[in-house]
Amino acid sequence: MAGSQLKNLKKSLKEQGFTGQTNVKGSKKGSKRQAKEYDREEKAQRIAKIREQFNPFELKVNRDKKTTQTGKNASLKAVGKPGISKQIGEERRLVAHEAHQRRKNRLGGLTDRRFGERNKNLTEEEKMLERFTRERQAQSSSKKSLFNLEDDDEGDDFGAAGDEDLYGGTLTHYGQSLALEDDFQDDDLGLEQSKRSASAFDGDEDDESRPAKKKTKAEVMKEVIAKSKFYKHERQKAQEKLVEDIEDVDEEFDDIMSELSTISKQKPKLPAESGASDKQYDTKVRELGLERRAVPADRTKTQEEIDQENAEKREKLEQARIDRMNGMAGIDVDEDRGVEDLGDDFWEGDNSEEEEEFGEHIDNGFAMDDVQLPGDKGEKGRSSGSKAVAILACPQSQDELMDILENHSAKDHPSLVKEIIRTYQPRLAAGNKELLGTFVGVLLRHILYVSNDYNDSNAKELGKMQNELIAILRSMAQKYNEPLSLTCREISNEIQTRFKTQRSHGLLASDLVFFTLVGYIFSTSDHYHLVATPSNVLMGELLEQTKLNTFQNIAFCAVLARISLTYQRLAKRFVPELVYFFEKSLTTLLPISEASKLEKGLTKVICDTNDLKAPPKITAKSMEKSTLSLRLISDQKRQVSDSDKIALLCNIFTSMEEAITQIWKDMSCFPELAVTVKPILMAYCEQYPNLETLRVIVEKIERFEAFSEHFPLALQNHRPLSIPMHTPKFEENFNPDKKSNDPDRTRNEVNKVKAQLKKERKFTMKEIRKDTKFEARQQIDQKKKEYSDYHAKMARIVNQISTEEGAEKGKYEREKRLRNSKK
Amino acid sequence: MLLSKDEIASCAKRVAASTDRRHYNNIVKLVSQYPDLSQVEESAFENDEPTLRFLTMALLPVFRKLFSRGQLNPAKAASANEKQFSQWCRKLYNSYKSKLLHCISCIPFESSLALDCLDAYMQLLEQEAIHFASHDDAPFFPNKTLKALILAIFKSNVSSSVDAADGQSKNPVVLEFTQSYYKKHVDIQYYFQAEMTALTQEDESIKTLDHMQLMAKWLSIMNHDNHYSSEDADLEIFVPQPPQAMENESQFKSNLEKNWLFFLNLSGLPTTHYKTTLLILHRRIIPHFNTPTKLMDFLTDSYDLGDHVVSLLALNGLFELMRRYNLEYAHFYSKLYQLVTPSLMHVKHRSRFLRLAELFLSSTHVSANLVASFIKRLARLTLDSPPAAIVSVLPFIYNLLKKHPTCMIMLHDPDYISDPFADADKIALVKERRRQYTDPYKMEESNPEITNAIESSLWELDSLTNHYHPNVATLAKIFSQPFRKHNYNMEDFLDWSYDSLLQAEVTRKLKVSPALEFEEYGAAFGEYIKCVEW
Question: Taking every annotated instance into account, which residue ranges of this chain make up the domain CCAAT-binding factor (chain B) (predicted)?
Answer without folding.
Answer: 311-476
